[in-house]
Amino acid sequence: MTEQTILEKLKEGARRFQSEVHAGNAAEYERAATTPQQPHTLVIACADSRVDVESITSSGPGEVFITRNIGNMVPAYGEMLGGVSAVIEYAVSALKVKHIVICGHSDCGAMKALLSPDSTAAMPTVRSWLTNGQAALKVADALDTPDDKPGQRLRNLTEQNVLMQINHLKTHPSVAGALARNEISISGWVYDIGSGGVRVAEDPSRAFIPVSASTV
Ligand SMILES: [Zn+2]
């Protein structure tokens, strides 16, 4: 696909959204346009192009406040003050979200890069960002057994990374305060791109339980 073709494809997508999706849900968008947003949930997901948070959670406009980055990382408070920290503070303190989801996923390039550090040798910024997952890597390493099936190490790391980012999340003052007042809850998710399934660990549990399709 040439660059021009890609832009045309995106513009056609915007036209189709306006004429079909937006026009087809006019009342919902009218309400979204005329009332302040009140999202119930903050979702911190991976930037991977296959992780579509609204689709995975069947959410419409105004329901989920989202930030996405490589590896669904949350720097511990004070370590890398920036976009992620600001999103968390705003979502909790101003929007008063009731729940925070940290969402990892199968086949995550960031998790694979943690397992193969040489792959980011030429990308110093990515490498630096991935240090947010180093502690999770150590935990996943400790869980390794000789009987592990292929892919188990990546699966372990993906889960442990989500749990570690929950730990980091709790170092943010806005989150710590809201937790102490029982105003907020946290869960860790791993989305499986191949099956569409989601495994959820409801904090403080560290066990990932599949969300059964039949109960939805
Ligand atoms: Zn990813």
Describe the fold and architecture.
Keywords: Lyase, Metal-binding, Zinc. It is a single chain. The chain is α/β, with parallel strands linked by helices and about 220 residues long. Helix content is about 45%, strand content about 15%. It contains nine helices and six strands, in the order ααβαβαβαααααβββ. The protein has a six-stranded mixed sheet with strand order 2-1-3-4-5-6. A hairpin with a 6-residue loop joins strand 4 (about 185-190) and strand 5. The model has no long low-confidence stretch (mean pLDDT about 95). Zinc ion binds near residues 46, 48, 71, 108 and 110.
Keywords:
metal-binding, 216 residues, binds zinc ion, Beta-carbonic Anhydrase, Chain A, 2 domains, six-stranded mixed β-sheet, alpha/beta
How far do the termini sit from each other? 38 Å
Shape: globular
User: Can you give the mean pLDDT?
Assistant: 95
* Total number of distinct structural domains: 2
For the record, the CATH class of the largest domain is Alpha Beta
Strand content: 15-25%
Give the radius of gyration.
19 Å
CATH superfamily of the largest domain: Carbonic anhydrase
Q: Describe the strand arrangement of the main beta sheet, using strand numbers.
A: 2-1-3-4-5-6
Determine the structural class based on helices, strands and strand pairing: alpha/beta
Number of helices: 9
Keywords: Lyase, Metal-binding, Zinc
Catalytic activity: hydrogencarbonate + H(+) = CO2 + H2O
Enzyme class: lyase
EC number: 4.2.1.1
